[in-house]
Amino acid sequence: MSKTDAVKYQPEFLLRLYRQMLVIRRFEERVKYLFLEGVMPGTIHQYQGQEAIAAGVCAALQQDDVITSTHRPHGHALAKGVGLEPVMHELFGKLTGCCRGKGGSMHVGDLDKGMVPAIAIVGAGVPIATGIALAFRMRKQQRVAVCFMGDGAVNEGAFHEGLNMGAIWSLPVVYVIENNLYSASTRIADTVRLNTLADRAAGYGMPGITIDGNDVLAVYEAAREAADRARSGFGPTLLETLTYRITGHSRRDPCNYQPPAERKLAKDKEPIGRFAKNLLDAGVVDQPGLDIIAQEVDEEIEQAVASAVAAPDPQPESALEGVFV
Amino acid sequence: MACLTIAEALREALREEMARDETIFCIGEDIGIPGGWGGAFTVTLGLERDFRDRIIDTPISENGFFGVALGAALMGLRPVVDVQYGDFLFCAMDQIVNQIAKMRYMSGGKLKVPLVMRAPVGSTGRGAQHGQNPEAIFLNVPGLKIVCPATAYDAKGLLKAAIREDNPVLIFEHKLLYGAKGARAESGSVNASSEIPEEDYVVPIGKGVVRRQGEDVTIVATLLMMHRALAAAEILQHQGISAEVIDPRSLVPFDWELVSSSVKKTTRLIVVTEGPRTGSVASEIAATAGERLMDYLTAPVLRVTSPDIPAPFSPAMEGFYRPDAERICGAVRSVLGMKASA
């Protein structure tokens, strides 16, 4: 971040972005520990290293804009405002979770906060987000849909069908690819012939942009431009954000398929430390200021964990409810 | 009162509902192309003239447009998805099974998915990929309501009920029942026309109907097979056998009250559905009848279905595949302890 950026943005905004990324990181680290301790049920797909994308994109959205997410949804949920406690409680399968314990890690969301319960089938969110955007258009609402997906999604039929319909109907939707180089453990070069996934956009007749997904301000600016474009009736954008997952694909994945040199480089480029350094260099905040933020974030997370552990489990028979209206 | 075919009755239901509620829209392939066909079976013919912005023609992207419909439904619209052939539901299985059917449940019961899916089914001279009866597969998908109208009156009333329902509803329509005359007359088609009342009405989802009263045996049959069962009952009457024919009209929820009260009277049950036998709709009804009605049954519950083969093309083989009145009569004679040749 240059001095210009420090002038261009209010310090409060920059610190809010920082705090949002840190909330996601510390949440995920705490959740990982809870899993390894055996305290938390289920499985998890975590977001460490990709925080700038959820934080940057959601900062560019209005409250009534709607996102769809993936099997790796914690970061999106926290950034869109579903709330620390409702998400943490859901991961514990508690009645007080954002999906009353019926969704779990892979389906966190709250449409009242603008997030469809996360869609854990790769690529399936693409047509759904397109349909959300169709509804906005049909109802003449100035709202935007955002579809988060991983790089693996670009090889699903749903990706093709969804992007094509978004394009032919010029719908207010932004398709965000989080390219972390791996579909689970399979490397991108083994699944796609292109060097940049944004090139796929040309096949649908929409703009495709590739940006550094670990630069939160670059993500914010690209997302805002794409959202503005969508909101103004100029149709969808395919936004490829380059990033790296600095944790396993799912629990207990030691990532032996990631070359050590690549992992080390990625850790140096991870978004939060990088942004912190920029904030310090630009004089937006000092180290004690960052320490206070970290302490506050950790306290909030501990509170969410404590209340989640203490919250009641759902009645087993309540599994029968909620199938039909 | 006007006498309408099923295709006409469905069209009238769509027209009336769309005029009543601006959130309703139709989406599918070739449904509103001026100069086109109004979908594969004319159901939406001409609706684009009255509702241009709410008849949405899609690319050939079944999985895509079922997902689009789900997204729109989550935002408060009420889509009616038109799939040209029920066989193409399989192209959209992820959206139907993993997304549409489960979205409400995964949200902890917070979200509503008011979404109607219309699917033409039945073996009709089109071979293995345009002639299946995929109903049974969807019985195993909690979160979907499923209806199967066999008359024009029910088609209109069930479609209206489905559109007003806040849950996803899958409507199976039989290709040989759309209309027995004019452009829609197909070989083997049956007249399923009804007198349609002037006033608004719905047929409640989950309620079956007794189509013919009888004393000796209960025949539960859906769609085209319901008409075959009525023909069988007519033949049987001449042989001194009184068959009661029940049209369940809905598969999910299923009207067990109606079937139970009939079987308690007749003590015998035959279930007739078109499509492969294993894991069929008939299998599910027969299994549940075995659990619920054992004390009343005096004979095994028999299924009359297609064999476990894909739908064949040749008319000679298709007649073998699709149950007819004679096979239903044979099953009835069997449960009555009569010789097959009687």
Task: Tell me what portion of residues of chain A adopts beta-strand conformation.
Answer: 5-15%
H-E order of chain B: EHEHEHEHHEHEHEEEEHEEHEHEHH
Averaged pLDDT of chain B, please?
Answer: 96
Main sheet properties of chain A: 5 strands, parallel
Structural class of chain B: alpha/beta
Q: State mean pLDDT of chain A (0 to 100 scale).
A: 96
Total strand segments of chain B: 14
Question: How much helical structure, as a percent, in the residues of chain A?
Answer: 40-55%
Give the biggest beta sheet of chain B: 7 strands, mixed
Instruction: Please compute the radius of gyration of chain B using only Cα atoms.
Output: 20 Å
Alpha-carbon distance between the two ends of chain B: 43 Å
List keywords for this structure.
heterodimer; A: 325 residues; alpha/beta; 5-stranded parallel sheet; two-stranded antiparallel ribbon; 7 strands; globular; B: 342 residues
